Amino acid sequence: MKKLLAILLVGSIASFTACEDMEFLNPKPEDRITAEVALSDLDGAAAHIAKAFERTHFFGNYGQTMMLNPDALADNVDLLNNTGRYVGQLVNQVRNHTNIYSSYYQMINDVQIALSAVEDFRDDDPARAAILEGQAKFVRGLAYFDLARVYGYEPGQEVGGFNLAVPIQPEAVLGTSNISELERATNVEVYTMVKADLLDAVNLLPAESAEGNFPYLPTSTSAKALLARVYLYEGSYAQAATTAEQVLAETSATLTDVTNHVASWETVQHPEAIFSLNINQVDWSSVDGVNNSLASMTNTDDPSRGLNSSQGVLRASTTLLDELDAEPNDIRRDLWVNPTGADNWEARKWVGEQGNFLEHIPIIRVAEMVLTAAEGHARSGNATGARTQLNVLRNARGTGDFGGTDAQLADEILRQRRMELVLEGHRFHDLKRLGMDIPKAPAQGGVPVQYTDFRVLSNIPDGAISNNSLLEQNPGY
Q: What is the CATH number of the domain that holds 127?
C-alpha cells in the first residue's frame, strides 16, 4: 500500500534554487530548473544540495526554532514581550515542543535526489562528485540527528523501553509512484546512520584551508565537529573527547577571550565559527526579519543598531542570571543588558550585524568543542583531561581555574554549557541526553518537568500519522 506521506515533499521536487556548488551563499530565487535537468548532471546535484542547506536557514530550522526552543523548553529564558511566540514552550504545553518533521524530511529528500545524481555522474568529475557527496552526507547527518533528538530518546536513556526515533527514507522521492509507508527506525539505527554519514563526510570534504567559503560550507573539520557532538549525545564519551580535540587541533577558528568575546558577536564572521550560516536577504523579506529573526526575538527596539520594531520576546531567566553573577569576572554577563527595565535582561548575541536583522549564525563554535572535550573526558574517567579543557574555557571567560573536586567536574561542565551556549540550541537537549529532569525558571512556576514525562519528546505531526499506517505516535500523545 502506498500513500502520500506527510514527511515531505511539497515543492521540493517541483522547483528549487538553481545554483553552483557555492552559490547558496547568495542564491537567486528567480533561477529555476526542472527535476529532469536536476538529475541530468552534477550541476543538478549541486542545486539540490544548495536547496537543502538553504532550508537550514528557515525560521522553523536554525534561523530561529532550533536555536531558541531548547532554552524556552528548559530554564534559560523568560517571556519579555508576549507576541504569542514561545508562550507554550515556556510552560511545556502539550504539542508545543519543536516541530521540524516535515521541513527536515524535505531537506533529506533534497539530499537523496542529489546523492542519486552524484552516483550517476560521478565519472564526469570524480573530485567534484566526492565533495558534493560529502556536503550531502553532512547535511543529511545533521538532519537525522536533529530529528532523532527531537522525536526520540538518546540511546541508553529510553523511558519504558521506548526506543523509536524516526523513519529512514531509503531513496529519493520524485513522485507518488515511489512513496512508501515507513516504520520508525530505532534510535540506535538512526545514530548508526548519522555516524556513517559524518565519517564519510570527514573523508570526502576538503580541509578548511582548501574551502574558499569557510565556515559557511562544511569541511572535513566541521564534519568531525558535528560527529563529536553526536558521540556526546549517544554517550560515547571517550570518542567525543578525542574527536573534539582533533577539531581543536585542526581548525583555524580561535577561542575568544575576555578582550574580544562580547564584541565578537557584533562581527560578521564570528572568530569561533567552525560551521556557520550566512543569513541573507533572499532567505526572508524585511518584514520576516522584523517578525521572526533571532535578533528580533531577543532584542527590543534599538534604532541606533538598526533594530526597528523588534519583537523582544525572550529575556534571561533569573536562574541563568544567578549563574552568570556567581563569579563577578565572568565576561559573559556583559552580553546581557536591560534597556527597558530592571528585570528585562536582553541578550546581545544576536544583533543583526549585517543590517535588516540579517546575520551570520555560528552553528558549531570552538567553545562547544572545548566543553565537549571536557565533558567527554569527565564522563570517561579522565579527570585531568577534563580539568584542563574546562580551565581553557573558564580562563577565556575571566573566571580562572576550577577549584572544585574531580567529582564535581561533570556538573561544572554542564553549568558552563548552560552559560556559554545559551540561545544556541543546547540547554534542553543537554539535560535530555543525560536523562535529567528539565528544570523550569521561577517565572514558569519553577516545577521541573520530570524526564519520564511524555512532553520531553515532541509529537509526530498528526498529518504524518494519518497518512502512514506504519508510523507510531510518541507515547502520551
A: 1.25.40.890
